[in-house]
Fold these 4 entries.
Entry 1:
Amino acid sequence: PFVYLNGEFLPPGRASVSVFDRGFVFGDGVYEVIPVFGGRLFRLAHHLARLERSLAAIRLENPLTAGEWETVFSRLVRENGDGDQSVYLQVTRGVAPRDHAFPAGVKPTVFAYAQPLKYPPAAAVAEGVAAVTAADIRWLRCDIKAIALLANALLRQQAIDRGAAEAILIRDGLVTEGAASNIFVVNRGTLVTPPNGPFILPGVTRDLVLELAHANGVPAREEPLPESALYTAEEIWMTSSTREILSITRLNDRPVGTGRPGPLHAKLFALYKAYKQAFCEG
Ligand code: PLP
């Protein structure tokens, strides 16, 4: 397998970055993860649009055009034998003597690779997974897909240490999102997810779920979600590019609803899989 680094395709062992890269020293960069189904980049335009937003938010110019990104990803995917994969890309501000101020005239470091997609285990899909609630200790620009993920890593580990798959984050009494996912609840048959804003990442999977709900007459709302709504929810789901739509059937060691994945999850997951199938065949 090859990785892409600054214009070259290299074996991973030969790809290296300076210890003075601002990504390494400051976490000064942004990233994307793009799922690949049947060798094709799923919702590529959405991921590139979000990348553009993230880059603009940290005042970096996009180093590649959309066409150039696609060429890089396609080659990585092909070299990896197509099938279902995930493409990771990151852009950092580049290499410069350590100083908080932006360096002048420095080229960004551009890195990308593809790996086989690790789907959640079949039992997790069929039975749902456990989650715990945790205080959202992150910064105030969670809408930027920043590589600095220390808080997210601490929160995810906190969940793992309690035997759960995800932490559902609470800020000022409201649900924001998961450590690496967006959150939906079903409340009296209606799908509810927090609105986009500075405290959540605008998830590509989240948007697709909303799109599919609207197109198929499933009532869905984007509105602030109090923590208390988690404890009365009929269903809770997490969404992400690599975990797709996963039921959360236990929260803080108590069952959610019936304790089994619910009927609305079955419906939206079927719609999602049909959409994905059509994409693969299209
Ligand atoms: N929120 C956070 C903090 C994430 O890291 C992710 C992705 O891993 C998501 C939400 C889901 O976004 P997407 O559906 O675009 O993968």
Entry 2:
Amino acid sequence: DRSIKIAPSILSADFADFGREIQAIEAEGADWVHIDVMDGHFVPNITFGPPAVAAFRRHVKTVMDVHVMIAPVDPFIDAFAKAGTDILTAHVEAGPHIHRTLQAIRGAGMKAGVALNPGTPAQSVAHLLDLTDLVCVMTVNPGFGGQKFIDMSAKVRELRAMIGDRPVHIEIDGGMDPTTAPLMAAAGADVLVAGSAVFRGGSVENPAPYGENIRAI
Ligand code: DX5
Ligand code: ZN
């Protein structure tokens, strides 16, 4: 579906070759580039921080969509803004003051996203929708690529109704592939993150599978 944006997650890219991986997925049709920041505390894995994100910015020509799985978030907001982040998405579970965090993200000049773990209800963002540009519905427990999809169709439908006519994206993150993606699009999602399903079968030397995979989702 052309109206659905695909945001490949570089969590499934070659970690020794991020610059060329980003160029390859954009050349093959990525709408946004999704960057997963993990701290080994909020989630049981560690990836990279603001200096790496600043380096990625030199290659991203589309939208740099940064998903922070870190706690706390607030001390790092300015660093992600300076790194050139377009959309900064923080978890509602990451601290007691998500409302303040979203205000600070917008205050730093970025678009503000809020992410929900699978166990977190749609209602947890009911009072945040005017502070938010994107709601990210996790369809895996965050921390790793390549996990099994957890169906959150009911949550997505509930969020779409709550959002009404506000200009808020619903992004799905985890287990998106040609079978699961249509379920989420039908429920009301408009941005799909995909890691393993985009990068499988390709490489920077042979990027054509990236494009085939993106178009298949
Ligand atoms: C998981 C990350 C996802 C991950 C998705 O914690 O937030 O963005 O890269 O990977 P796949 O598409 O392989 O489930
Ligand atoms: Zn993510």
Entry 3:
Amino acid sequence: LQQKLIESEKLSTIGKLGAGLAHEIRNPLTSIIGLTHLMKENKYKAEYLDIITAELERMDNLVNQFVSYGKPTTINRVSCCIHDLIRETVELMKNNARLHNVNIYVECSVKDAEIYIDKHKIKQVLINFMKNAFEAMPDGGNICLGIETDLKNNEFHICIKDEGIGMTKEQVDNLGKPFFTTKENGLGMGLPICFDIIHAHNGRIEFHSEKGKGTEVYLVLPQNNE
Ligand code: ADP
Ligand code: MG
């Protein structure tokens, strides 16, 4: 019996993982299929290819994340402009935001600041937080992305603020545990991956949330650690 239980638990975990991966991949896939149909009808625009490439890269990253989860996170740091990184990420999320009736505001007080990070992985973290914010606002709303430097502590602070459903204290305490999800189609793997990536950068994540009011996520990254 014990063995059977373990087997069925394994199967249900695999099922959950599969459902989650399918869910994550469906959005970029739908947009790629739509664009290739347009191109077949000769409504070709050069920017379609850029979008297709970006969506394919996103799917590639997702699959890589899945197969690498549980293994130690390795990061490849490059020097990059934090403001550019935020702009590129917002650009990637624009279609998604429109679909969710969400407005994204960026408040960046450090326009030309450079940060030494794994750009791909931090982008993935920001995308995960923004998706959670969208999903917390089923009727749409505003997301504010704020970027500041804490010169005293040599840190970057990135804040992602939504006006969504918020969380209870108990929910906040569970954040980052693998498979913790309150969503019907949720997977509960987004935040564990984010925590891994931020810890690999020697940074930290803080949540302030109130049920029914909204959530603020603070990402803290050390400024110079080459
Ligand atoms: P998933 O999105 O698949 O559920 P995550 O690891 O991304 O998995 O998030 C885990 C849980 O944390 C969510 O199911 C939700 O309950 C909660 N959560 C995360 N971000 C937010 C947010 N911005 N607002 C409300 N709840 C959130
Ligand atoms: Mg999520």
Entry 4:
Amino acid sequence: MNRNIVCIGAGYIGGPTMAVIAKMNPGRKVIVVDISKERIDAWNSTDFRLPIYEPGLEEVVREVRGRNLFFSTDIAAAVKECDIVFVGVNTPTKMFGRGAGRASDLQYWESSARTIKEVANGDKIIVEKSTLPVRTAAAMDAILNFGDSPYRFTVLSNPEFLAEGTAIRDLLAPNRVLIGGPQTPEGQSAVAALVDIYAGEGGAWVPREKILTTNVWSAELTKLAANAMLAQRVSSINALAGLCEATGADVEEVARVMGADRRIGDKFLKAGPGFGGSCFKKDVLNLVYLCEIFGLHTAAEYWNGVIRMNEHQQERIVSRLFKAMFNTLANKKVAMFGFAFKADTGDTRETPAGRVARLLNEEHVRLAITDPKALVNARKDLAGLDRIDLVEDPYLAAREADAILLMTDWREYPKLDWKRLYDSMRKPAIVFDTRNCLDHAQLKEIGFKVLAVGK
Ligand code: NAD
Ligand code: UGA
């Protein structure tokens, strides 16, 4: 068995993960493959116009591309050349048939398994990098090891915990690396081969005690559970934010004091417009579906509440803006500052800003959206909607606007000249800071009417 690695899927997970693995394992060849020629061309572009924006990513790709990291559309050749096969394809929520709106759509996953089976020329270790429903590895095993193939495939689960915007940092210094493997001699030797990638060639990359090994089903479930717990914390603090607004309490003070209890901890207690991103909603819905099929209906309802609360938060933002703007939004101009689902990414999948933009569009608002990295995606997401302008310059977006609605906590926004923004707007000028990241006292002094979340 050789030490080469192929990753099927060159997206937000495949690209950064493999770039870091290649950086830390200069003696291994790493190939990232995808069915999308456009994506592979972007990864290979001579001017490093990579298909995703992630701080620090370009530097790593510049260091390793062409050295021991390669991007290709020739999936068969790469699988033949590599005995360790990561699968990092997308697993979106299924929108049709059984489980529609909740279950994972596993068609890309299954087609990867069938391709591997078809082209394999020797024994392979298959590593689940995508987030998958519990027991997917059993289906993978059944497809790969079915029939009289002379080759043996061992399926491991190695979910990824990186967050977008901090992907490179998270990959270089992970809280933990999780590896689930079959409790058989063959399974354990595959686990050892995978540990070897992370323990690094000098053993210096991920400390051994941070590599946690479990059985396959625990690993698959832990990934869904970890995302569900994080999403639940965001929904919990947002549920408290509404109560703070109604009572005069301040959600930031409540979070700060709660978080000082080490049992609670201070992370993921930031009230805001609700969680976005490609994974939280999809993974919680997947958990809901799993609970339902195992007859755990109350547990399913509980997790579904996390999603309901999240949607409610965006509806509440629109309602509050509506009220602050004298119960009519038609033909008023709102400048939306930030469209990405969080700062430091151009990703707009499930972004709260997208839902709020659509709700405002239904009210016939004229929207000017600005964002330092996400306008290309915003254009695709909002295609076909009228009364929407995408504007690079925030000062231009705010000109003649009735309100600024800050949706993403980009570091540059607090540094803008807010007096200049105020002077160019219609009065009374409103700022709705849904991330609580601006200096509200200063804004009020300038003359703005300020709305915030949970205060
Ligand atoms: P993505 O859509 O950015 O990338 C997936 C890629 O797989 C696409 O480029 C697609 O063309 C390719 N693909 C699909 N079917 C293929 C096939 N049969 N052969 C070759 N390529 C194929 O998705 P992503 O954000 O990278 O997420 C991938 C998985 O990783 C998901 O399961 C997700 O839940 C999980 N994950 C994502 C993140 C994140 O930060 N985005 C974090 C942790 C886990
Ligand atoms: C999340 C997890 O943090 C990762 O561990 C996981 O690997 C990843 O999902 C995944 O499986 O895809 P990500 O979605 O990239 O990462 O970003 P987060 O930092 O978790 O933020 C998610 C959303 O919650 C963002 O919209 C963010 O603004 C929001 N959020 C987060 C809050 O509103 N408040 C908080 O306190 C924290």
